[in-house]
């Protein structure tokens, strides 16, 4: 191998080899020629197997996610950007400002280095935009046919804003249910790229980091009861989890649910419910009802929250049902998805 | 699905299905019937997408690793125990006490739930023994043939002991090079299980958490220059990394290197160098020479360090070579491994 003196990695035509995960010179070369320059920061540059950061006394949030989305590249994003945004959002939903992220890769032998570089640069850009630092990492390589291009784990650390403690079990009857924008965009963007399902649409993934919008929401409403980003399982899973954890029900107004018309059309065509589709740049907030108007105003002021809407209310319900009220008064139960609507959406 | 009322998971005959990664009711069932009871602790039980912990003002260490070891079960351990020990050790090597771990799973459709439970229980036991808590997690499922049973990411957080700051660039000429025990055991234990290579041996993996031994090392020698666990790439990769980062050379005494005779015999049989074999329960410490004797005494007092040995010295060398001096005075350069000796060792 040639890490110290010799050929550099060929990012145009080269492929990931098993040696890149061996912990020897080829691994070092990948770190030196790709990860360090892309994620450059002091903490990563120490080249230890861990990062060490000064932390003030705080409530610290920690969240982890593996990303296995297929395809790796899709309209509006890719697995790299998503791995940053997704973990930033999970940390932010606790009312914390995300600061540090770890990034660990499971690469499949034969992955074009060109694709890997594109993904890593996309992560770096997403992290820089979000103001978080990728401070430590790991790379493993599995044999051809034992993985699928690249899987990424990101784990994020953040500091919770003082006095803030949203949690899924805090929803109370009377609270307002707010969503920050249109539902199902990510799911449809991914679906449009799948082999055998492909269809024409201009829908792009909503993949984005929401922590700044969360900060302005919290400034407006420090006593937000619960926040969550409705990813896998969509709005339906998220609201059912909150209802279950809080021991309440919810009633949503069908006409208040925000959708992109193209997403609605695609869902109709495919026989899918957009309320079960994944989102990667939306949040659900349960807030005291008298704070709802101010929260909506704060969300509308953020480019990512322009289509925020008050979609329903928390109610007493010993069955913990999430129900949807139609325009003509009829209601239906919005259940969890029975099976798997769409594997590997994130 | 049947999370709320209905059949429980069948851990004897059931298989992982794509729905277990869908974020809906099947995912919830897996969390409720497997992960929560196994890892039980207050932080995990909040059921939020993140854990929130109180942290004092501190130097905080963070480390991440993906584990893709094959086979999943091997003499002396399994992928679950290893995922805990490995991250505990990476955090500990910075001089930190590990406290919290995240656990994220990429499961292959068709994995027996029986195997998954065995792995998860092994993680839980390893975490309990090590005194660390698994506080947040994630589960994804990929289609059959797109993964390999189970991959695990663990990311660990710890608090660095005050006044301690070992780092790979701190080795100085004159320092002692110490290793905490026999070399290559994990590599040979894995190799003995591989299809097509299998051979008879009683060697078991050294897979273990080293943070308590690190604490007693630090108590004895707060100014330890550098610590690292020689996993992938073995002692050779670890020492070359330290030499490179510190801008020094090293000279090891061949006769001082501790080996299990069975590991030596297996390596000879297979034409492998045990200095390139992975270890999962050993550490290398570079310490000021006058502290070496006390450090050895501290290590010998720990059951995991009984065969600790002073194996060499740091020297000035502009080429940053790690050299081995034989019993009759001849030296050879211990280089990084050129290729991949053994894929998926961890």
Describe what this molecule looks like in 3D:
The structure is a homodimer of 346-residue chains. Chain A is of the alpha+beta class. Chain A folds into 2 domains: 9-160, 60s Ribosomal Protein L30, Chain: A (2-Layer Sandwich), CATH 3.30.1330; 176-333, Alpha-Beta Complex (Phosphoribosyl-aminoimidazole Synthetase, Chain A, domain 2). Chain A has 9 helices and 14 strands. Chain A has helices at 25-39, 42-45, 79-92, 113-130, 185-191, 211-220, 234-246, 261-270, 292-300; strands spanning 51-55, 58-67, 73-74, 77-78, 96-108, 133-142, 150-160, 176-179, 226-228, 249-253, 284-287, 309-315, 322-325, 331-333. In chain A, α3 (79-92) packs parallel to α4 (113-130). The longest helix of chain A is centred in the middle third of the chain and has 18 residues, at 113-130. At the A-B interface, α1, β1, β2, β5 and β6 of A face α1, β1, β2, β5 and β6 of B. β2 of chain A pairs antiparallel with β1 of chain B, so a sheet runs across the interface.
